Description:
Blueprint: H1 20-48, H2 63-81, H3 90-102, H4 108-131, H5 136-183, H6 193-202, E1 210-217, E2 233-235, E3 242-246, H7 253-260, E4 265-268, E5 272-273, H8 277-292, E6 301-303, H9 308-314, H10 317-327, H11 336-351, H12 376-382, H13 397-409, H14 424-431
Parallel strand pairs: 4-6
Antiparallel strand pairs: 1-3, 1-4, 1-5, 2-3
Amino acid sequence: MTPARSPAVTTRSAWHDVPRLQVRRFAAIAMAEAPSLAEEILSEIRREYPHLPVVLDESGEPMALVGIRRAIEVFVQHLEQSEGRPSVPPGVFQEFGRGEGLHGRSLDSLQAIYRMGVRLAWRRFAEIGQRVEIPPPAMYELVDAGYEYLDGLVDQSVRGYAEAAARQAGERLRLQRRLLELLLAEHHRGDPADALTERAARVGWPLPRKVAVGVLLRPAREAVAPAVGQEVLLDMEYEQPRMVVPEPDAAGRPELLHRALTGWSGAIGPPVPLSDAAKSLRWAEAAVSLMQRKLLPAGDVLYCTEHTEALVLLQPEELIDDLALRCLAPLTHCGPTHGRRLAETLLAWLETRGAGGGRPAGRPPADGPLPPAADPRAVGRRDRRPRPPLRAGTGAEGTAVEGGAGGVGAPVTPTTAGVQRPDRRRCARQAL
């Protein structure tokens, strides 16, 4: 047997029970007093918030007064018709929200102003209700309807505020991008100091004495921009985002960047004067290129100043490869065994800067005891026949550096003619 359904409980509206004659009398008085009520509310708002700007409309009347009066009239019309929810006039209250956003204020003060307006309006409506003998339960409903109406006004203002905030953010990004373009340009037409000062002022960026430029690698295509703070200029429009860090050596700056860039990788160039920001960018791009070729540690944001040797020696790879081919070309005419011995001898000579049987005066040993190949007698035993000249002036210091650089650029695996080139890391250390 199907249980009987309980009858639906409907909440009876006390306002709807008020005789229509009384409602019309209430509405007529409220509409007549709407202008004076609006002026009273605006006067109280100005007293509580004296710094609130007064914006005039085309007729010279305060927009706030127009908005308050219009809101009162729409609400009273709704009370008279008693149909649905009151429709909120969108234009004026959206403009209020936009004004708060454009002037950098929060919506808290605007909502407080709205609540003050509702409280003053309710006080006047209560007086009118007593005059036309509206029952108290109906007046209580009027309070609830007033605050529901207030929520609609706030929603409109929030919409206007969001539009202004988005517009401001877009404008700031555009101005910031123009500032970055000027900062990182290699060449300028004339002195860019004035333009730099003007563009920095428009985004509220104090010009620093020194900057470091970073280049980032995205952890994912849709990665959210790192929260580096307003003082760091960040441009996410590049495939490899760029950032300009002001005063990179300031106390706490590295720690803040480390926390903000967690999960990102890339490189931060050396600190340079503001006018040389393009140079810092160049080194950061070089470091990122080496990271992508797995010649520098990846997976984190590194500082170029901590990898100077690698950046100097590994960056011009094509030049080093060409230098290695030219410096070691004489070894290609030797047989595999003889060429290998000559390569070992060359490495030993580079390690000792060509000092016979020992290191130069005052130079401490780099890697422990001197290798046997450095002894001239060992060299003679290894090479029983005339050696082809590696270069004219083999004993010159410049040739040692070239040979070391060639060793850096040369692979460790055997190459043409079976000659193993010197170890790149050892040669780099000795050449430096």
